[in-house]
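Deliverable D4.2, example record:
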Amino acid sequence: MQNSTIRCSWATSDPLYIKYHDEEWGKPVYDDKILFEFLILEGAQAGLSWITILRRRENYRKAFAGFDVKKVAAFTEKDVERLMNDEGIIRNHLKVNSAITNAKLFIEIQKEFGSFSKYMWSFVPDGKPIQNHIEKMSDVPTRTELSDRISKDMKKRGFKFFGTTICYAHMQATGMVNDHLLNCCAR
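Output generated by the structure prediction step:
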């Protein structure tokens, strides 16, 4: 893409950010493996910039068994120790443990709903992405009543690092909401 291409302002000149913005952010995701990947990555991002996580994404993929939810759910204390010594990821004990806990809960939701995707998309009217009409980035919310509702339900189920702001970021990343600017090339 050329520099004259109009993008959301957060998609800086960093090629990693531009690729993520153009190819992933806001695109509907129904695949449980990708939804699990974003669950891990969004939890790791709490309190940090998204580019920090994007730059470590491949390291997360290796550290968390290719985002295989069953393998992550089976991680032991030895795995936690390995992860806490892995300089390629964010070495926060609470975040590492929450990823394992969330993997177990993710599987419970898959059993209950048939897939995590069915669970998540059941919150969205008609199961279709919400098309927000964003004219400037300051119009993008950090949370909504819907992210409040999803986050509350997930917290009730025991999920960690999935407050309403992280939930909304997950919704954006997985295309449950489209918050691209109206004039953005990726809209």
